[in-house]
Amino acid sequence: MQINKIKTEIAEMLSDVFDGATIMVGGFGEAGSPIELLHGLIDHGAKDLTIIANNSGNGRVGLGALIGQKQVKKVICSFARSAKGITFQELYNKGEIELEVVPQGTLAERIRAAGSGIPAFYTATAVGTPLAIGKEEKIFNGKKYILEEALNADFALIKADVSDRYGNLTFKKTARNFNPIMCMAAKQSLIQVRKLIEPHQTNPENVITPGIFVKKIIEIDNPIIETNAIEEGMIYP
Amino acid sequence: MTKKNFTNAEKGWERGVIASKIANDLPHASYVNLGIGMPELVSQHIKDDREIIYHSENGLLGMGPTPNENEIDFDLINAGKKPVTILPGGSFCHHADSFSMIRGGHIDYCVLGAMEVSMNGDLANWSTGKGIPAVGGAMDLVAGAKNVFVMTQHLTKEGKPKLVEKCTLPLTGSGVVSRVYTDYAIIDITKEGFKIVEINENLSIEYLQTVTEGRVYQ
Asked: Which end of chain B is more exposed for a tag (fewer CB within 10 A), N or C?
């Protein structure tokens, strides 16, 4: 019997998701954002989710749509402001969604640490700022650092470019961003890819995320482009 | 000491002039991160005697200029989420590696905007204390880059000094700024105060002092 992580239905990808889950969502803005999996999560209906992502969504597509459905109780991100952001802004202004602001590099490192078995680390980022309040301080070689804890997640929703059935992933250009480290940090990383290939077609030298970090894969060969979808007035569901 | 608003402030250098002064101070072969907005202008003023490599926080080293309309790829964007290009010799990496370039002290220069800069080099540029708080990569850049340059107008839109004795807005970093480029002057942050490196040819030191909180000296 062969290992095969490929699924054909989005519902199958999300079958283990539960109410109250912590879910990482890959992407930086729209680049690498797993829009079809996010729409699948709306169809799934899980509630009280904590979302870890760099941003908080645009329009009523993808992450913006999920937040608009009031399935999210908390967002952990570096930049929750956006010209095209609607849903997070509405709920935040009404006090109906929590926000934890994390400096972008600290966010990336907390995710990387979680995937590498590092429970916490010291960093100079944010020392002396409001984001250091309540955090342990320590001096190394005469310089002040603060303690930051790893960010773990139950699931990661990821968009990659190409995969084989083992989950050996490559990414496209700057759509790589948070995706590889989120694959490592989540208990289950759920990947939508533009193209599936046979294992013998995978060049081991070019694999960015090795399959050990991947749980399930689905092919979405013509994914929604967020900018175009918003311009065309798309609203999900 | 809070200064009044200067409603009839003197006209200073145009943005392009400030950008070219910064461009002249970036040495050949530097790895540079330019903040979103006004600092992006710096790349247009680099002379042919040097090659600068631009870093974008979202995993792009060797960033090129804005693409033509027909070459736009929404999977190739900068930290401001605008379409860009990649130059020959450029590379992509994931976010933790990209921020290791910053936090690990590998970026030689970053150029950022400012709301306030204090005499001891504190920078406030991420929050007015109102609206949704959003920090992005600013705190990582000021904590990690080898040199932090600020590019800003000397006065706010309301005519208030941005160079102050002590910042009143939430800090981005403490004691992190090395040099400030404004439309009025180039100023180094020193223990003695704001040291004038170059002053706008149309302005006097006395005028610069009146539009700056805290000691200005030459």
From this structure: N
Query: Considering only residues 127 to 166 of chain B, which have any Cβ-Cβ distance to chain A shorter than 8 Å?
Result: 127, 131-140, 143-144
Query: Looking at chain A, which residue has its C-alpha nearest residue B86?
Result: A173
B87 part of contact set with chain A, CB < 8 Å: no
Q: Is residue A237 part of a domain?
A: no
Q: Tell me which residue range forms the domain holding A189.
A: 6-231
Instruction: Count structural domains, chain A.
Output: 1
Alpha helix ranges (H) inside chain A:
10-13, 35-44, 63-68, 87-93, 104-115, 179-185, 226-231
* Residue-by-residue pLDDT tens, chain A, 237 positions: 999 999 999 999 999 999 999 999 999 999 999 999 999 999 999 999 999 999 999 999 999 999 999 999 999 999 999 999 999 999 999 999 999 999 999 999 999 999 999 999 999 999 999 999 999 999 999 999 999 999 999 999 999 999 999 999 999 999 999 999 999 999 999 999 999 999 999 999 999 999 999 999 999 999 999 999 999 999 999
Does the predicted model carry a pTM greater than 0.95? yes
* Predicted interface score ipTM higher than 0.95: yes
> Cβ of B134 and A103 within 8 Å?
no
- The helix (run of H) or strand (run of E) holding residue B103 is helix B95-103
| Structural domains in chain B, sorted by start | 15-217 (3.40.1080.10)
CA gap B41, B36 in Å, rounded: 10
Report the CATH number at residue A188. 3.40.1080.10
Name the residue of chain B whose CA is nearest to A175's CA. B75
- The reply to whether A176 falls in a domain is yes
Report the candidate in B32, B12, B14, B11 with the shortest Cα–Cα distance to residue B23: B32
